[in-house]
Specification:
binds adenosine-5'-diphosphate; elongated; 6 helices; metal ion binding; 2 domains; two-stranded antiparallel ribbon; 33% helix; zinc; six-stranded parallel sheet; binds ligand LXEULUCI; 241 residues; alpha/beta; 12 strands
């Protein structure tokens, strides 16, 4: 049998050593808020960020620059509640844009639409564990097909707390866990609100998906037929010339 010889003394792990993060800050925290669209994720994030600010902590809010539905430089809930934010294509650019000194003084970072940030995991690790920040993240856990969306689920193992919110099913009023897409588009990322999506319970997700998938198949078939037809007419035209 072999033993792994560690050079780290147990004292430093059990509390005898300096347990602060580099730069002598206490380690931060990571809190995650997930759920379908219209569940109140942004509302909950705004409430938590405002309350941190009211308690005298320095706060900053970030959202994805992909989603500028209601405003360019504010996080806005579906009810219209607002908070100024940095709209960024990625999280790694935040520190430079915010400024090194201002970043050092920052206590709490809110991130909305977290599903759109590819570098979510690395940013949260560094912000909480090296820089001592409290990071509060709101995002979709699943897309309209109920597939894991972006890196939101990857940060669950890093989190201090995870809150899964629910909306109300638009068909029956029961708790809604899922987001149904009402249009024919099939790409994962499609910015939109109530014009494109609705919150639904399990039963109405299953029924709704069946209907939407048949509708998408019919539309695709029509499009293919139309394209073949226009190709034919092009060929006919070419033959005439
Ligand atoms: N089907 C719906 N269409 C439009 N607005 C809705 C719908 N269901 C709920 N809402 C409103 O949206 C609010 C939640 O907004 P928000 O916090 O932005 O949610 P999320 O960030 O989870 O999408 C609810 O309090 C409610 O007033
Ligand atoms: C389900 C689903 C959603 N999106 C987009 C639509 C919205 O722009 C955001 C979610 O906003 P909310 O604050 O949670 O209401 O994400 C998408 O691109 N793809 C999807 O499958």
């Amino acid at each position: 049998m072999s033993y792994f010889k560690s050079s780290i003394s147990l004292g430093s792990i059990q509390g005898g050593g300096d347990m602060t993060v580099p730069g002598n800050r206490m380690p931060g925290e990571i809190h995650v808020i997930v759920g379908p669209m219209f569940a109140g994720k942004t509302t909950a994030l705004l409430r938590r960020i405002r309350s941190e600010g009211d308690n005298g902590r320095n706060v900053a809010m970030i959202k994805s620059s992909k989603d500028v539905r209601y405003a360019i430089d504010s996080v806005v809930s579906h009810d219209g509640a607002k908070f100024p934010c940095w709209a960024l294509p990625d999280l790694s650019s935040f520190r430079d844009k915010f400024g090194g000194d201002a970043y050092a003084r920052l206590d709490v970072i809110g991130i909305d639409e977290a599903q759109f940030f590819e570098d979510l995991y690395d940013f949260c690790c560094k912000a909480a564990e090296q820089d001592g920040k409290t990071v509060i993240i709101a995002g979709l856990d699943g897309d309209y097909m109920r597939r894991s969306f972006g890196s939101v689920l990857d940060i669950i193992p890093l989190a201090d707390s995870v809150t899964k919110l629910t909306a109300r099913c638009e068909f029956c009023g029961k708790r809604a866990f899922f987001t149904l897409r009402k249009t024919e588009e099939i790409q994962t990322e499609l910015i939109g609100g109530a014009d494109v999506y609705m919150p639904v319970c399990r039963q109405h997700y299953v029924n709704g998906q069946l209907i939407m998938q048949s509708a998408r198949a019919v539309l695709l078939n029509c499009r293919v037929k139309r394209e073949v037809k226009s190709d034919d007419s092009c060929l006919e035209e070419a033959a005439v010339i």
